[in-house]
Amino acid sequence: MDNRDPIIHLHPRPLPADVTERIHRAFPGKVAVAVEERLNQLRREDPKLFGDRIVRCIVFCTWRYPSMGIDIWIQQVRTDFRDLIVAAEYDRNYRQLRDFNRPFRDEDFFAENRIRSMTKADIEMLWINAWSDLYEIVQEQHDVRCLLPDGEVVDVEECKGWLQDSAYSGYVPAVTARWVLGKRGVIASRTPISGVPPHPDSAGDKPNA
């Protein structure tokens, strides 16, 4: 009688269609083939760890940071996959900009392409202009509150950080004078640089009234 533990063969699902399509749109021929083969290999090795969300994050980060290569992101998954998700989906203030539980959207990449075509000075002017408008609204007032698109109410310094991060994340930030919590305040908003409307399920870009 054979008392050895049986070998359980897991049958990983193929890469989602949106991932395969994006790989071949984002990378040149031989590179795309290599990336696709590598991800399929990882799915065979550990289909649970390298699930759909993780492979989307790997593809996005490999495309967004071409000088780093795919291996560093694969190693990040093995070390702590949460850091990969933060790099792919969140801005510097840990606000979620993308959700790779869902299939890729063109705007996830289009805004990044638009940023790449802009100079550092172009991007800086986006948030500098928004800061200038903010200062003009606030002037000498104290304890001014700002309403962000996700409904969070923050102070002026936090609002400045949000405006700056928005510019570096592919948006044109803006502020307008409005009533917030019963006092004169500021409504912050942003529109995609690409001109593509934000996804309806994203952390909205329309402030709650």
Through-space gap between termini: 72 Å
**Overall 3D shape:** elongated
H and E order? HHHHHHEEHEE
Main β-sheet, spatial strand arrangement:
2-1-4-3
Low-confidence stretches: 1-9, 195-209
| Structural class by secondary-structure content | alpha+beta
Please state the average pLDDT score.
82
What percentage of amino acids are in beta strands?
Answer: 5-15%
- Count of folded domains: 2
- Share of helical residues: 40-55%
**Count, helices:** 7
Walk me through the structure:
This protein has 209 residues and is of the alpha+beta class. It folds into two domains: 17-89; 119-192, no CATH class. Helix content is 50%, strand content 11%. It contains seven helices and four strands, in the order H-H-H-H-H-H-E-E-H-E-E. Strands 2-1-4-3 form a four-stranded mixed sheet, with helices on one face. Strand 1 (146-147) and strand 2 (153-154) form a beta hairpin. Helix 1 packs parallel to helix 3 (52-64), helix 3 (52-64) packs across helix 4 (69-89) and helix 6 packs antiparallel against helix 7 (156-168). The protein is elongated and about 60 Å long. It starts with 16 loop residues before the first helix and ends in a 17-residue tail after the last strand. The relative contact order is 0.10. Residues 1-9 and 195-209 have low confidence and may be disordered.
